[in-house]
Design brief:
Layout (H helix, E strand, L loop, with lengths): L2 E9 L2 H15 L6 E3 L6 E11 L3 H12 L5 E11 L7 E8 L1 H15 L14 E7 L5 H13 L6 E5 L1 E8 L6 E9 L2
Antiparallel strand pairs: 1-3, 1-8, 2-6, 4-5, 4-7, 5-6, 8-9
Helix pairs in contact: 2-3
Length: about 190
């Protein structure tokens, strides 16, 4: 059976992607650490990573998503703030934060988890931490590289509260290539 790498995500509007692109350019100019920058066009809010799935269950996943979004209206979110995982001295990931109706977003993510569990996708063990990944430090990054990026993030201000309305949830295909991942839409489910 054909397998595809997939995840469930929220697409971002163009103005948010543009702001992220400008932020990345600002950060790139401040460091020479070995960083893999996420293509701003590929930036999205991941609600659940599914991994490799059988092509045959895509319709079941879409049906589970329809059930998960039932009764959940559009969600108002904003983009603001900058941070790192796990912390600014051991940086592995650089992210942009989210504001707005995070309680509704949390409820949506929990319902997606619940509806997908019977299909063989276990619920997340870690708490949902909504963020937009904009960079990952490469394995060869030294302790000094990681601390340098942490200091850069600390002194970089990204208080651009760009508001947007989430109206749908997408099932995405992720194809890994040498140039980076290629994402394509497998299906979209509108919020109520």
């Amino acid at each position: 059976m054909e397998q595809i790498r997939s995840f469930i995500a929220i697409e971002l509007p163009g103005d948010v992607k543009l702001a992220i692109s400008r932020l990345q350019e600002k950060l790139k100019s401040g460091s020479r650490a070995p960083v893999k920058w996420v293509n701003p066009e590929n930036t999205h809010l991941t609600l659940k990573f599914l991994g490799n799935i059988d092509f045959a269950i895509i319709d079941d996943i879409k049906n589970a998503l329809r059930e998960a979004v039932r009764g959940i209206p559009a969600i108002h979110l904003g983009v603001e703030g900058l941070g790192t995982f796990p912390n600014n001295t051991r940086v592995q990931v650089v992210w942009v934060g989210l504001t707005g109706e995070l309680d509704k977003l949390q409820k949506l993510q929990q319902r997606i988890d619940k509806e997908l569990t019977p299909l063989g996708f276990p619920a997340e063990k870690r708490a949902f931490s909504p963020h937009l990944t904009i960079a990952r430090l490469r394995d060869r990054a030294t302790v000094n590289d990681r601390q340098e990026i942490g200091r850069l993030v600390e002194k970089t201000n990204f208080e651009r509260s760009l508001d947007f309305l989430v109206k749908s949830v997408n099932l995405m295909k992720s194809q890994l290539t040498q140039e980076g991942p290629i994402y394509s839409l497998l299906g979209s489910v509108n919020l109520d």
